[in-house]
Predict the 3D structure of the following.
Amino acid sequence: MDKKALLTKLIIDDTLTQHRIPVHEELVIALYEDVEISQHIDFIINKIKTKTTEKITPQDNVQPILLLLPPARDLTSEEIALPEEKPLKPGQIPTHSSSMPTEKPIIQRPTAKITLSNAKVGTAFNSTLNIELNTLEVAEIEAVDVPEELGITFDHESCCLVGMPTKSGNFTLVIHWSVNAIRYQNEVLLIINPDPRSLWQINEPPADSPYPKAHIDSKLILEKGIRIAGASRRGRSHEHAGTFRDDDFYIHHDNQSQWSILIVADGAGSARYSREGSRIAINTVSHYLKSQLSVENAAFKPHLEAIHQWNDNNAINQVGSFFAQLFRNAAQLAINNLKNEAIHINEPVKSFSTTLLATVSLRINNELFAASFWMGDGAIAAYGPAGKVRVLGIPDSGEYAGQTRFLDDSALNDAEFNRRIIIGKWKEISHLILMTDGVSDPVFETDNGLQDPNKWTALIDEISPCLASPENADNALAEWLNFFSAGNHDDRTLVVAW
């Protein structure tokens, strides 16, 4: 085990033991994969190296000379019997001479420090075996005894352990090495971490749970000049806990008015019935938007003309005011319906907390008009031409991961409410995209990442194969949403118009 891995293990084990923290595999893996913990360990190691270097003087580097002495004899306790000698005759020369017994010099076994990296099941492993002797001599590793069916072998030429680990756990390897033609062996611990994906269970919610929701949902709209696909799937955290998906989405295209409606919602994970909250918000807002954007709504016709012309700033401002009021009314209706459901089952309205991201769009020749409403985290963007992105709002991020703003009266009455609405008209828009934070967090990582065109281009490149066959795009997106990202196991919902 390398020094960093050993130090990490000691600190984590000691902390969990000292504080009597309940241990489970997900927690241990999360601690080992935590970037901040890794950085702190690196800091400790570098600090030790620095302090050690400061204390070492040139004399400290000189190896001590060892004087090997035979064991001391207790002469008083030993009876020394000398051989009897016959008396010498006159003129005879003595032939007997006694010699001190000699002992072979003691050869001390060198102390070997052997290091290797940790491995992970299902991930290619290639770790150099490093061996350092306290005598500063160069040792040669001759062989390594590896437990069978571990998927790892020793490559003598490169002096590396290589392979694809098949089992997780702590395994003892026997390292055979030599120096000065003398052979030795040491036992070394190899830690193979489990594949995090193997730790997640798939459990079903109780059969009598209220407000059931399908674990995976997808929809597709394919019409002349219109392609919209949406998909949503239960996250691994909900699979493991045996609970329902909290996300929801809606897509619609009106053949008469040519308006498209795209909505995603993410129920709060801490709210008991947020899965129903997201569904209520989606159904309420979609119904209202459809009625207001229909050809029968005469009050909308002047704004529709301004959208087509898009050359009068005063008219454009009036369009902005129209959509600000449109989304405010939609949000108010959704909040009212959330309250009604809460009263109906005698629950606090916070039990139905949800985010809401909605966009209405109209394609006019090679241009796209869109008006968006953004409440909570996630993302909305108009992408195109290649390499250019317009993020249609600002995410509501809190002080810690997972904290955001939900649809409620306080948000509706906020003096800054109108800043949640953005309108625009652009050329060469290839993709209009909405997503919940289950997608945006692993893809963009931070709010600043949302503004990075390179990250959006990478996302478009990744989902393009799903959209290549439009007739199956919704199912392909649902399958793509199952990608693995360490630490990101929330529900995932993605809606794309392309």
Remarks:
- The first strand starts at residue 112 and ends at 115.
- The chain has twelve helices and 20 strands.
- The radius of gyration is 36 Å.
